[in-house]
Here is the input.
Amino acid sequence: METRDNLFNRRRLLPVRTIALLALCGASLAAGETVRLRVSDNGRFLVRADGSPFFPLADTAWEMAWRLDREETAQYIRRRRLQKFNAVAVVAFPGESKGGQTNRYGDHPFELKGARYDPLRPLVAPGNRADRPDEYDYWDHLEYLIDTAKGAGMYVILLPAWGNCVAGDYGTGAPSDEIIFDAGKARQYGYWIGRRFRDKSNLIWMLGGDRSAVYGRRDYRPVFRAMAEGLVLGAAGTRNGKPNYEAVLISYHPRKWQPNSSEWFHNDPWLSFNSIQDQPKDQIPAIEHDYALRPPKPTWLFEGGYEHRQNRYTPWHIRYQSYQTVFAGGFGVTYGNMHVYYFPRAQDGARKDEGAAGEAKDWELALNDPGGRQMGHLLELMDTLTPAQFLERVPDQKLIEGDAGGVRDGEGLRSDRIQAARGARGDYALIYTANGRALRIRMDRLAGPALAAYWFDPRTGRWRRGGREFSKPTPFLDRVASGPGAPVHVFDPPGRPAEGNDWTLVLRGP
Here is the structure.
């Protein structure tokens, strides 16, 4: 019987130009309800082709493409979809390019040249049958992941390469053996992978990969820009003689505590929306910075603190960084779990570089951690808005009378912040209190003559009136005076002010 190694050795190594002409593999599952997305007309949100809003609730699954087999991939996607996640962030191939790394089926993504990947020599084999190892190559398996997500109604946020393959060292950007792209190779590879998956309606592209685009005099922007141009040309071709940028959604994933995507690329035509990677102490200023830029582009927290990070990030931290950034102007949010993103097994132990995260546990068990399960309640809350209300949402801290609070320690792991958003016409408001302290709300900034008030529990997704919980929106006050001249109204959330006692006040027409 032929060994896997022998199959690998006789794989056809095809140049990028040849591979780009091959027909794409057929979908493994029936198509879901995913359709191509675009930026809303007001430049603040993502919408479907018909203009209906889309709120991305994403999970971080960086290494799924090579750590999971087909059955595990389907298992992961089924579980996250049941928890209401509608997107997943994945890296196309392993960033450890020196020496290479295979996926679960023993396949490399590229030919190895001098113990390094050659990104212009993807390893592909004719055919795509999963029961034929000589046909089912690395890129077929990545396509299976994309199609399985589509069948479940989920989008894939795909990083064509991790940032070390472009910008080298995390801290300094110094060149390293892991750099495999210059501008020319980035453009050709971008073209190939864009064309390889051009028919996938559930793809959102993300460049970067935990790296800055500029480190002092080391400027990697030309390489990232070349990759973006190649992606667009491969995925959508040209329009009026120029790359069809409007047909492809692309953003940039920066490293944390550094300038975010808007610092380098806000005015680039390929950057569809901004992304930030920050911790609670500075995530709100980052969102507010992006929101104020012109021309307007959507922005969001693409990577924040992970559940279990350093054994300090609890479900409460996950909730408040998510609700705060969305109400501050983010169009969606991405969740992360230290025991999911690289799909560990307990017997393997924790990664050395993530030792502060505590001992590893099986990723299947981590999928049921409370912070992840509770993320779906944010999507449920946003779904209570009509499409028009969703697309007219604006941040408004002026709704809050008095101290809006903020972070109460150096990293931002203690918070009493109040964050407010409303409809542009004042027909509704969403106000989040991180620790359940009383809310003094300026009702004169909302439409009159009266609004109903609701308590939404981010822990359970249920609505509170008195001592009772309800599965559907149920007001605890039916008519609160609003509109010009209305007085400040004090709303006292259930329970006593304390870390973990977070609530969302919803005000809208009765």
Summary: Residues 1-32 have pLDDT under 50 and may be disordered.
